[in-house]
Amino acid sequence: MDFAHQLVQQLINGVSLGSIYALIALGYTMIYGIIKLINFAHGDVYMVGAYIGFAAVTIGNLPIFPALLISMALTALLGMLVERIAYKPLRHAPRISLLITAIGVSFFLEYASMYFVTPTPRTFPEVMPNTSFNLAGFVVNGQQLLIFGITIVLMAILTYIVQKTKLGKAMRAASFDTETAQLMGVDSDKVISMTFCIGSALAAAAGVLVGVYYNTIDPLMGIMPGLKAFVAAVLGGIGILPGAVVGGIVLGVVEALVAGFISSTFRDAAAFAILILVLLIKPSGLFGKNTNEKV
Amino acid sequence: MFFGKKKFRLAAMLAGGLLACSVFTGCGGGGDNAGGGDKPAGDEIVVGANFELTGNHAQYGANANNGFKLAIKEVNDAGGIGGKKIKIVEADAKSEAAESVNAATKLISDDKVVALVGPAVTANVIAESQVATDNKVPIIAPAATNPDVTVENGKVKPYVFRACFIDPQQSEVMAQFARKDLNATKAVLYLDSSSDYSKSLGKIFKEKFEADGGTVVMEEAFLAKDQDFKAALTKIQTANADVIFVPAYYEEVGKIVKQARELGITAAILGTDGWDDSKVVDIAGKDALNNTFFCTHYFEGDADVQAFIKAYQTEYKNAPNVFAALGYDAGKMLINAIEKGGNDSDKIRAGIEEIADLQVGTGKITMDAATHNPIKGIVVIENKDGKRDLRTKIAPVASEGAAQ
């Protein structure tokens, strides 16, 4: 296998990994955009989504798409519940209290799930044929295409909601200035609640797709993807939707290239070095401008 | 008023915390060094189970704990030892070395246990071994395969034992298997860089494989809990090796094998006892798992282990994995030591050291007094169409643990 061949194969690997980061990063970035909270529990919401999808497939005997939708719906409720119970009472508290609460929620979700589903990893049954296509020597997997496709579709729906609907308008207004938006008649509590709802649904979609693609889920599966998605969100400019998607895919590609051409030992170091470099050089991220409207 | 209440609650919590701290520091000082050696109260023998019940290693610790509890339950159901029942006090090592020390300290000084079993993972056992040695309470580590668990600076730790073989033996067996049985000349190492277990196995495999005339052409690494291995595997594919050695735990192994085969890597993939779990085939798929081999502690088709597998199935409604089996073995060893007349820590320690030809869950073992490693066989298993075949069986040999 020559250099060019490996390069293309690594780009394929990177984009498929990056689309998962992107899905999780979208939720991170939306929530940050609205209430300036880095929701560390987001990775764990993703984990719960994966388990709900798993239950729907194994106990409910559902095919993958209904399972995905059920998981997204229930996880959306969970996201709203978390917001109502843990974050809403702290709406006017200092930012740091909110951040620490998010860490608490994260641990709560991890260890409550560990109690209920046991720490043993679960394996997803084969819910869709896993065919690999060999295109001129490059291996592309059917599930990789599916993940990429679903990411694009969800991203399109999200853009539509944010740009074209009344709710989206309210979200943009609230993200711009919550108090002023409230004075203009925007019910900011409802907007925040809906943001958590949508963000959590996206995380659930990522969780189920990861479960199907990588075949295994466990209660601590959300920690690392959560951190990586955070890096992706910061890289793209936290609070900016297209930034999260581009950030996720760039991060996935960088990881694949570092692992492929430098050393797999440096892969995670590279990911977090990106975080440090972005914060040092351009804290607002690739897409960030200080005056940009944010969601 | 509201404020007052809140402050009071805070103060109460602080006071509680301080109290807890003082308990821990009190025993950390090693003041009562007879510690667990005290006479057991009444008609019970109290032993401690210090396992990783939460955290990253919970899946290993919880299984080993189940195996251990089964062994103790069997002896209690049969009337106990000399009329005395064995009582297990459980503590959570939380998958962290410091927490393992806390749990061991609590078991020894508060619960007055006469012996400790666990934790599952090497680092957590090594952390706890100092506390046990200071308090003269014996430990049996079920599954910690690193040589340093029982040996320190060339000297055996008097109170630390294990129920499994050690890493150098595993790597030597697999390196030899790769060279002689598979005629491999080029090998790739793919290691979990977050685990000492994986790194030390990789190092010894390389030494042995190269001493036998092979070459290790590439070394790559991943981290426990990774999901995506395709980037490194794509690189590994370019090395065109005959074998890929992946000494890691089953969750990652399953994913690595699956993704390697998806990329079209057909080379034999080799591993060690971390592979020994029925989940590997669920994760990787049975076709992907063909042409993979690993060494482990027992073969489930052996006549010797049927009794244990059946008992475990009945108790927990699922098949035991290797951690459960070794936890059970550790329990059997402890019971044997107590039966030989020991119900205080020192007699139990001597009893474990003298274990000879004892039938445990995974076969017969003899304790090597020089290294505190049991002398037991190793089996090499081949995965074939989702089933396990016994490939070779290496007879029991004493390890050279103390010499290193």
Largest interface: A-B, 43 and 33 residues
Give the number of domains of chain B: 2
Mean pLDDT of chain B: 86
Question: Beta fraction of the residues of chain B?
Answer: 15-25%
The CATH architecture of the largest domain in chain B can be named as 3-Layer(aba) Sandwich
Q: What proportion strand of chain A?
A: under 5%
Shape summary of chain A: globular
Largest sheet composition of chain B: 7 strands, mixed
Residues in helices of chain A, as a percent range: over 70%
Instruction: Give the CA-CA distance, first to last residue of chain A.
Output: 44 Å
Structural class category of chain A: mainly alpha
Order of helices and strands of chain B: HEHEHEHEEEEHEHEHEHEHEHHHEEEEE
Secondary-structure-derived class of chain B: alpha/beta
Report the mean per-residue pLDDT of chain A as an integer: 89
Low-confidence stretches of chain B: 1-8, 13-40
End-to-end gap of chain B: 67 Å
The CATH homologous superfamily of the largest domain in chain B is named Response regulator
Spatial strand sequence of the major β-sheet of chain A: 1-4
